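Q: What changes when arginine is included in the input?
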Amino acid sequence: MKKNSPVSRSGRFAGGPAADVAQFTESISFDWRLWRHDILGSMAHAQMLQKIGVLTRKELRAIVRGLDAIGKEIRAGKFKWNPALEDVHMNIEAELTRRVPAGAKLHTARSRNDQVALDIRLWLRDEIRSLLAEIADLQRSLVLLGERNVDVLIPGYTHMQRAQPVYFAHHFLAYVEMFERDCDRLWDCHSRVNVCPLGSGAIAGSTLPLKRELVARLLGFVDASGRPQLTQNSMDAVSDRDFAVEFCAAAALLAVHISRLSEDLILWAGAEFNFIKIAEAYTTGSSLMPQKKNPDVAELARGKTGRVVGNLVALLTLLKGLPMTYNRDLQEDKERLFDTVDTVRITTRLMGAMLRNVKVNRSACEQAVNDPVLLATDLADYLVRKGMPFRRAHHVVGAIVALAEKNGKPLNRLSLAELQSVHKTFGRDALGVFNLKSAMAKRNIIGAPGTKEVVRQLARWRKQLS
Ligand code: ARG
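A: The predicted holo structure follows.
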């Protein structure tokens, strides 16, 4: 074997690649983080090779021990990665073989093409599971904020204009619903990540009698009932990155949800709304204006959504023109995937932590929600109860709002005579609709911000998330 030449070139090539080519093609600078899963995959593959007689028991033991020692060194930061060996797979295998001669048998019936597909799947599977836990934490923060402020009302907005009163908790729970859908999507994606590609070789499997099901079981590629999950087409298996795209798509939507929540928090924290106060630990100062406390965490959470969406587009673009099967282009999947995972994980975590450090400013909320115009629809419903068609009632109440504006009075201060000057149907009880408390008690259908319904929803989520 020639010196200074990666194992992948040892036989066919007269020498190593040009220096800038090596730099251009290496992936060790970023794929080193797959080391743990690469080692796990190699251990399972070695176990299988022993079962089919390619490795002796002794060789297997030596390989497992060698891989274990390498793993410990990597974890301790003592392992020296060699860029000339291109990637994490060759670095670990070369070092193993240097220490354990039988290491040279490890790559039997395996290619980096199925190996890298395996490693990413194993790695992403773990990442999805831990992201799901982070999302649940974020949901719990929202539920807690709702519970702590269970009686606080704010105006709900459409078109950024005050629309109708809602419990603040109802607004928080809207995000809990969004995040739950994100979890569903991630779980669904998980089922397609959790399929074992090993045994696909470079493109066409192997002539050796590999026990693919054994490897799949060893690595936990099983469905809910314990059946091993195997890729069914070797060509698809080495070139498929759909699972990565699916993850990035689910993550992009998660990021969009976090971004919308950030926008709400930023608005509420401003003096114009003043609905919340974000604890100092989650704000930053201005280098020029001494009075400032800026919601930078929320702003960065919103801003980082751009790169998460960008990563999805980059992956789709990467795949769109690829002929079958593996092409080196696919090496470009990793940084996009890594960046997506890192970005959504930290953003989800910080958003949850920040929400646990948000104080609701009750008096500002109360002041904002006490605008009687928010209950104009309730006044229309009053007329509907008296038998008026809704379209008509809408028109009549519109005229009442205009009258109040003209007379310079709040809607709930109009006299009965003024109301009746617009329509006779109004009775003494009409102004009763402006009692906020009873207005909220009336909204008790499923999904509405009624007093009882919001408490019920909070309890439902509390139970579901415990
Ligand atoms: N580092 C490569 C990647 O990330 C591993 C696969 C290389 N395979 C090959 N035939 N050159 O995709």
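Observations recorded in class: The beta strands are 153-158, 161-167, 276-278, 358-360.
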